[in-house]
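Our working data are protein records whose layout never changes between entries. Instead of coordinates, the fold is spelled out as a row of discrete tokens. Here is such a record, shown just as it appears in the course material:
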Amino acid sequence: MTSNGKTGVVASPRAMRIVMDGIGSELQSYATNNLQIVKQTKLLAINAIIEAARAGDAGKGFAVVADEVQRLADRAADIALRFQDVLMGRISLSRSMSETLVEEMEGVRLIDLSQTLVQLIVRNLYERTADVRWWATDTALWEALGDPEPGRLGFAADRLATINRFYSVYCDLVLTDARGRVVASANGAHARQLLGHDFSREAWFRGALATKSGDDYAVGEVMESAAHDGREVLVYSTAVRSQGRADGAVLGTLGVYFDWQEQGRSIVETEAALPPKDAERTEVMLLDAKGRMIATTNPAHRFASFDLRDEGRARGSYYDGKGNIVAFAKTLGYQEYDGLGWWGVVVQRTEQDDSIKQALGLTG
């Protein structure tokens, strides 16, 4: 959208519709006034003819003029009616079309933004599925689980810490034995308290044990990790198998804690890149398959449920009756990663017609 240099009003579909409405209203007023003038002219012409007839011979000349005035008034009436039927009909059609364009153009722009944001995070998360399966084959990990003597366990912890140092999108990498006991952790700030911790009831641990082979992985929901001071995480996990083989015996599990708190915030706040005036009236969010707001530009709404009226559509927009337009797009997934059924959603307070009219000088 661009700004009109004279008025400072952003050239938007809604502003154009208001201009069209203003033109239509002015033309309607003109047509009504014109018809009124024509009617008065015809009435005056009729009165003039009557008075000329009363004047007898002295009024004959004036009667000719009065008759001509009446004829011109009749033509003016015909023209006015044609003007109202044809031009006003087209103005009415233009109004209807502009209203449709407002809905479509306002929605399309925000729908595309919703799709872009959810696809951006999904592509990012696809790489996490590769990371966890790759790292689970690391020799240091399966050797430590196969022979858990202090030297091997220490080397496994060092290996995890090295990986984590170069992958800032993770807040931790946790290695457990087959019973769910933590034997090594990448995050030095939590490693001591995590060592020996029982993760057997964690969904990511159970999902990792349930994998059929080293080619599989598990992923849970965005959650607050009690083991990491309540930080928001998304854990990807898989089994660590003997010899690092895809069909090897399960020795334990690896859980990689994706730092959702930072990455989710970055997607909705930084990647959306809305101009300040638009950002003030917009909430950008990511929803999980349950409709939870797992990332939002309004922190007060974090993890609240959002009632998305998608009506079976994978993307679209609607007006919520509260002065907002809601645009949404479901993830398309990426390669074999299905995207977990997440949604990108943008809720934007629509421009107020009164303020646009005032800026355009159409309030008179």
